C-alpha cells in the first residue's frame, strides 16, 4: 500500500483525515510516527504559503510524500481576521472562541468562511495545492460538544446546526477540509500509477 505523511501531530486533525481516507489505497502516517521532526516556522502570509512551507519541510525530513494543510476562519466584519492566525488568536480553543465573540459583540454582520489549503510535496518541492471553503455565520454563543477550534460557533449555510453539533460523518462531507482533501485525494489517485510505491 502507498503512504503519505500528514504534516501534523494534532490527533483531532489526523483522525479527521483518516476518516476521510477510508476506502482509499493510501496509508496515512503523521508526525507522531516521526517524533524527531524539529518543527517549522509558519511565516507565510497566506494559507497557501504556510501549507507549502510545512509540506516541503516534512517531505524533506521524512523522505516521503507529504501533505500539509493550513486552515482558518475569516470573518467579514473583522476584515478577514483571524485568518492565517486562527490557531494563534489566543492561547487555547476556549480563549480563541471567547475573543472572537468579544470582537463581534454589537456587530450585525456575522458572515464568515472557513478556508483550507492543502499542499502536497514530494522530493522537497510542492507538487500541487488545493483549496476548499465553506461559508456560514458566527452565532452569539457556543453550541455543541463535537469538533474543535471554532466549530461550536459556526453554522454552515444551508444547515441549522453548528459544526460542533453535527455528526462527524456530515461534517466530513461538507467541511472546508473535506472539500480541499477530496480534490487532493483525486490528484493522488491519479498519480499513484506514475509514482508507484514511492507515493
Write the layout of secondary structure elements.
Layout: E1 2-6, H1 11-20, E2 26-30, H2 47-62, E3 66-75, H3 93-104, E4 111-122, E5 125-138, E6 154-156, H4 168-174, H5 176-195
Parallel strand pairs: 1-2, 1-3
Antiparallel strand pairs: 3-4, 4-5, 5-6
| Unreliable residue stretches | none
Structural class: alpha/beta
Main β-sheet description: 6 strands, mixed
The run of helices and strands is: EHEHEHEEEHH
Strand order within the widest sheet? Answer: 2-1-3-4-5-6
Percent of residues in beta strands: 15-25%
Can you count the helices?
Answer: 5
Query: Quick one: overall form?
Result: globular
Number of separate strands: 6
Distance between the termini: 9 Å
Q: Percent helix among the residues?
A: 25-40%
Explain the overall architecture.
With 199 residues, the protein is of the alpha/beta class. The chain has 5 helices and 6 strands. The chain has a 6-stranded mixed beta sheet with strand order 2-1-3-4-5-6. A hairpin with a 2-residue loop joins strand 4 (111-122) and strand 5.
Short description:
The chain has helices spanning 11-20, 47-62, 93-104, 168-174, 176-195; strands spanning 2-6, 26-30, 66-75, 111-122, 125-138, 154-156. With 199 residues, the protein is of the alpha/beta class. The relative contact order is 0.16.
Please describe the structure with a list of short key phrases separated by commas or semicolons.
about 200 residues; alpha/beta
